[in-house]
Design a protein that fits this description.
Elements lengths: L3 E6 L29 E2 L8 E7 L2 H8 L7 E8 L4 H9 L2 E2 L2 E2 L4 E5 L19 E8 L6 H8 L4 E9 L2 E2 L8 E4 L7
Length: 187
């Protein structure tokens, strides 16, 4: 049976096991995950936090990461400003980015979630409020969520991937990992 790991990736950690090409040492998955033979199923930017799935089965890895399977990925997103109905509607319809239109997203304004503190904290501007949205997409372009919120006028301050399909961060502390059920992948 395939092994699946659910890892809560902290801010500033690379979504890979080695760091080549950097003069200064950066944290990688090897600083947190001691499970031989597993590899990330997709990516999560260095400046993003949250759920990263790792597995030891290439077919499972492809099913999780490949956008043609349209596995929903939900993010808790702290944005600069308070998105209005028009901005939320644009996200729901799909946003035009330099690399084309995004697929429609599910989006809702939410209260500030009970998350761990980020280290370092986000920059706070006294004159500009911030707010939170939950954004669910079914594709995974480079820095897509950040580019989408910026395109509608509300830059991302903090980005936490909360779930991929049926797998969630519930009960997984930052920097920790647990074994997950690979059978939660839809057929």
């Amino acid at each position: 049976m395939a092994r699946l790991i659910m890892f809560n990736k902290p801010f500033a950690v690379l979504s890979q096991f080695t760091d080549r090409g950097s003069e200064t040492k950066r944290q990688t998955l090897s600083d947190f995950v001691d499970a031989p033979g597993v590899y990330p199923a997709g990516r999560l930017d260095r400046d993003s936090e949250g759920l990263l799935l790792l597995c030891d089965d290439g077919k499972l890895q492809a099913r999780i990461a490949d956008p043609r399977f349209k596995l929903p990925k939900s993010y808790l997103v702290q944005v600069e400003g308070v998105p209005d109905a028009a901005a939320l509607a644009r996200l729901r319809q799909g946003v035009s980015l330099k690399d084309g239109m995004t697929r429609p997203a599910e989006v809702a304004q939410i209260d500030e979630p009970a998350l761990w503190p980020r280290d370092p904290p986000i920059r706070v501007r006294q004159s500009v409020p911030d707010s939170w949205i939950r954004l669910t997409i079914r594709e995974g372009r480079n820095r897509q969520v950040r580019r989408m919120t910026a395109a509608v006028g509300f830059p991302t301050l903090r980005l936490v991937r909360w779930s991929i399909g049926a797998w969630t961060l519930d009960g997984v502390a930052p920097g920790q990992w647990i074994d997950g059920d690979p059978n939660l992948l839809p057929k």
